[in-house]
Amino acid sequence: MNDENAIAVDNVTYRYGESIAVDRASFFVKRGEIFGLVGPDGAGKTTTIRMLCGLLDPSEGKCLVLGFDTAKQKREINDRIGYLSQRWSLYGDLTVEENVDFFAEIHMVKNYKARKEELLGFTRLTPFKKRLADKLSGGMKQKLALACALIHTPSVIFLDEPTTGVDAVSRRDFWKILNDLLTTGLTIVMSTPYLDEAERCSRVALTDRGKIIACDTPKNIRLALKSRFIEVIASPLRESVAFSRVIEGVTSAQMFGDRVHIGFMPDKTSEDAIIAKLSEQGIKVSSVRTLSPSLEDAFISLMSHEPGEA
What we know:
The protein is an alpha/beta fold and 310 residues long. It folds into 2 domains: 5-218, Rossmann fold; 228-292, Alpha-Beta Plaits. Helices cover 33% and strands 30% of the residues. It has helices at residues 45-52, 74-78, 96-106, 113-122, 138-150, 168-182, 195-198, 218-224, 237-245, 271-280, 295-304; strands spanning 5-16, 19-30, 34-38, 60-65, 68-69, 81-84, 156-160, 187-192, 203-208, 211-216, 228-235, 250-256, 259-264, 284-291. The strands form 3 sheets. A 6-stranded mixed sheet has the order 6-7-8-3-9-10, with helices on both faces. Strand 4 (60-65) and strand 5 (68-69) form a beta hairpin. Helix 3 packs parallel to helix 5. It is globular.
């Protein structure tokens, strides 16, 4: 394992009976970076994180965390990682600080009071430390779970969809905390279905039905696309999407509010040809502009398995 890497996943498969949840996944995570596992429900993100935490053993392949085999050296890994699960798993009848105390005792952390106060301040929970956990908002509960996962000063922390169901302001606040954590040298691995969050990661693995379909920086994934993209304002809208999708050379057509984002292969069609085809179908096009591809555009194109794509 490269000393620069905190995590190495080598050709890992996980099966639930006859179903394959993770299919021959390989990737690495550098020390001190934030790495995103990105994809829809059922893409294998949670299963991958559970294997990396030593909660599940791979059916095939190997996972290394900080140089330790997750299937054979669970005890060595346990004290070096933090884990925030998808389901909130703290104690609602304990106060904020009592929850932190409890997890410090579980990890056998000695003289943790200063560390506790530091984390409560860091997560902006100090004014609420006497409040019962059940009385916290969704965003505050996630910050408390993060404080509990950090109490033993892990080297790597795993976050399984930490902002799902959290309001936009709390999501933004949570991300500020994560960015501040990166300055301490902590390695962060998180799963998310949100592509806007994926843009904030150092590198991402885009996952679909258990397979990794791309793994790189968000910028490089976008730049690797051979498709071009235009935004069209047209009427009627739904018919515009339906007709666009059957035009030869079009790789994707998605509705965004009152507009259509169309991806196409420039060696097979052109902006003018697409507009002409829509006009032939009675679609009135009132505006067209060129778009830079987003990570969402890249993900949709990669999932469509169109020829010539990155």
